[in-house]
Amino acid sequence: MAMGVVSGKEAADHAKETAQPQVDRSQVEDICNQTTGPFTREKGFRPAEIKKEIRELMSSYMQFDRREEELKTAVKELETIRREKLPNMALQARSARYNVEWMESVEARNMLDCAEMAARSALMRTESRGLHERADYPRENPEWFKYIIISKVNGEMEFTTEPVTFPYITPPDTK
Predict the structure, then answer these.
(1) What is the DSSP letter of 6?
(2) C-alpha span between 112 and 135 (Å, rounded)
(3) What's the CA angle centered on 36, arms 32 and 41, to 5 degrees?
(4) pLDDT at 85
(5) How high is the pLDDT of residue 168?
(6) To which H or E segment does residue 102 belong?
(7) Could you tell me which residues are beta bridge partners of residue 161?
(8) Mean pLDDT per 10-residue run, the chain (175 residues)?
(9) Alpha carbons 122 and 125: distance in angstroms, whole number
(10) What DSSP element (H or E) covers 72?
(11) Sequence-separated (6 or more) residues with CB below 8 Å from residue 146
C-alpha cells in the first residue's frame, strides 16, 4: 500500500508536467486492423493455441536459474510466434458480440508483448537480483543497480537503462 501511494503521487506529478502526445492516425488504423484481422481469415492459428504455446514457452525458459542460451531460445521462439502465427491468427466465431475467442486474440497479442519484454530484459540483466535468478550470473552486480526501460521505437521494442534514484529514502550501503 505504501508504495502504491508513492507511485500514484509520482505518476500524478509526472502527468502534470507532460504534454499530451499527438494521436498518430496511422498507428490507430494499424491497431484496429490487427485487432479485427482474425475475423478476415478463414483458416489460421487459434488464439487459445497461441496463448498455450506462450505459457508453455515461458514455463520452460523463464523459471528460476535462467541461463543465457535458454533465454536466447525463448526470445527466438517468441519472435517466430510474432512473425508466423500472430499475422495468421483466425477466429472460428464470427460474431463481434460476446466473442470470447476475439478477446483471446487480443490477449494473445498482449501476452506475446509481455513475454518478449520479460525474456529480453532477463537476457539483458547479467546478474541475479531478487526474483531474477541467472544460473550463469549467480550474484548481484552493483553495476546493474538500474531500471530497464522498454520503449517502442519505429514499431520495435527498444531497451535502455536508467540509474535507480531514491527521492524519499536512501538504502544502506551494502559494500
Answers:
(1) H
(2) 25
(3) 140
(4) 98
(5) 79
(6) helix 100-124
(7) 148
(8) 83 92 91 94 96 97 94 98 97 92 97 98 95 94 94 93 87 68
(9) 5
(10) helix 68-80
(11) 161, 162, 163, 164
